[in-house]
Design brief:
Low-confidence stretches: none
CATH class: Mainly Alpha
Strand content: under 5%
Mean pLDDT: 97
Number of strands: 0
Helix content: over 70%
Length: about 160
């Protein structure tokens, strides 16, 4: 395959995955959450979030896989490894590792707790898990937007 075409494909897939993950978090945190909080009672709101996450989180798993696969493909396939890339690439990589760690925590801890709380109709427990998810998704959204800014503008910095 033509190297320029391969790089274009890798970069496009990388950007699509970032848009899906970060855009989804931004929408959920800044748009859906405030509306749900004013329109729904806790039982309905918690059930809504279980449904939303059950549809969004599989996309996040795919996005993470695509981001790392295409990122490493570009780093090792076009730039001969981490020693040959500019500092902004190292920054994006570090931020991606932090974001992935936060996502893994959200998925395996508070999200699982939220599902159990909703199934048991334990609304106070569900609220604790929702509050933890909201905080962590807010943090991850900020980190994701920062990562996008670094990716978009990093190569123009010294």
């Amino acid at each position: 395959m033509n190297p320029a075409l391969a790089m274009s494909i890798a970069l496009a897939l990388h950007v699509f995955a970032a848009v899906i993950w970060v855009g989804g978090m931004f929408f959920a945190h800044q748009i859906l959450r405030p509306v749900a909080a004013t329109q729904l009672e806790p039982p309905q709101r918690q059930a809504l979030w279980v449904g939303v996450f059950s549809r969004f989180f599989p996309w996040v798993w795919v996005a993470i896989a695509v981001l790392f696969a295409t990122g490493y493909w570009m780093i090792f396939g076009f730039y001969d490894g981490f020693g040959s890339v500019r500092p902004y690439v190292h920054t994006m990589h570090a931020l991606a590792l932090v974001m992935t760690g936060i996502y893994l925590y959200v998925f395996f801890a508070p999200y699982q707790g939220l599902k159990k709380a909703v199934a048991a109709q334990a609304w106070p427990d569900g609220k604790k898990h929702i509050d933890r998810i909201r905080t962590m998704v807010g943090i991850n959204t900020i980190i994701g937007l920062l990562t996008i800014a670094v990716g978009a503008g990093g190569k123009y910095m010294s």
